[in-house]
Here is the input.
Amino acid sequence: MAVQYPTLPGSPTRAHYKRLLWRAGFSASKAQIDHYVSKGLPGAVSELLNPFTSSVLVGPEPTVDNRRLDPLNEWGHDAVWWIDRMVRSRNQLVERMTLSLHDLFATSNDGVGNTRHMLRQNGLLRRYALGSFSTLLREITHDPAMLLWLNGADSSKWEPNENYAREVMELFCLGADPGLEAATYGLWRASASYSQDDIHEAARALTGWRYDWNKSQNGTPAERANPTYYSTTVHDTGLKTIFGQTGRFTWEDVCRLVVQHPNHAPYLCYTLWSYFIPTPPPLGALQMMVRNYRSNSYSLKTVLGVILRHPDFYANLDAPALVKPPIVFVAGGLRMLRRYITHRDWAWILAGMGQQPFYPPNVSGWQQGPAFLNTNTVRAYWTAADYLLVNTVSDPGTQTPDVAVSAAVKAVASPWVSADGRGKLQAYAQGFEADHAPLDAHERLERQRVIRGLLLAGPDGLLH
Here is the structure.
């Protein structure tokens, strides 16, 4: 079916491309920004929405202590394996959406206890990051990590477990906050919301999937990755009534009924918008997303096509208002500085920052925005900046304070810095020189390192 999209800004500046790459990816080096600028803004958006199918990862292979990664057996290797993909992938929007979907379908290895399953789920999210949400929902419903995380593997016709049924409605697909009605201009309606009876009946319909613990340990590689199977003997074949419809429903019917529910499309579109834009969607944008989504087989790409082209996406280029999630901060910093994965310290650093990949705090995922910032995590952002800058700064030679600031900005791929922030950096550079003049090589290097650290992890550096 035909899709509708907003009109992109007609005279984009370099700031438009930086905004696009920060929010629809993980920032970029100067050369990477140049690549997208050469395509024009429509071409840049189109490239992000139409992923490459070959030569996706560019750059040196990740290592830890000069050895290949071993995510299945070594602590922290799973986290840096994914950060590496964010850094090296030419499909930046795919990776950013994989992260967003990991937050939406929040599954933690603390509950799963099987890194192989977490990596498999990660691949599933990546495969459908721009594809059909309906198909993704079907696949993740019997994904081994999800079955373990929300107890689907223990659910039977004798004791149907309601955990997945509840979360697929409340968090993944339909929403439960009455405030959504006003936020979505009535497209989401509290009067149409699901009930506890719907949860119970859906739980009955979802019975049947099982988990073979022996194959998970001793099976073939394929069986260890996915030791799930469907058993009709534990499935409840009786009549169920879900959302006012009655039938001998199975797990497939639950997935179908959920995506066809009138609250699903506005809830999902509103949720996706919030990952990319800090202000609520205007009515026209929400209607456009919902219409595209419903008329194109629940395609995420058609929703993202609205978000990445909407004027609100490019609003306030001189005053960004989204807080960089820790994972975005680290992956973006690596890309800006043209660095790659050579150690696993990023795993514990990200844990300290409050967002370790594969370990969301609960089934609700991470709280976004300012929730990432507190006295503990802000300090961890500085630790991350120190790691990003290690061995990247050398004696710059004699510099005036103004040149020192300009050189630092250029060295870290010219990130956004406010006029007030720039003034404070220049004041620091001047004060440092006044206190230490004449500057020796060590002091010149130290001043340059501090300015770069402030650009990365100072107040301006935390926003995108």
Summary: The CA atoms of residues 4 and 288 lie 7 Å apart. The mean pLDDT is 97. The first strand starts at residue 63 and ends at 64. The radius of gyration is 24 Å.
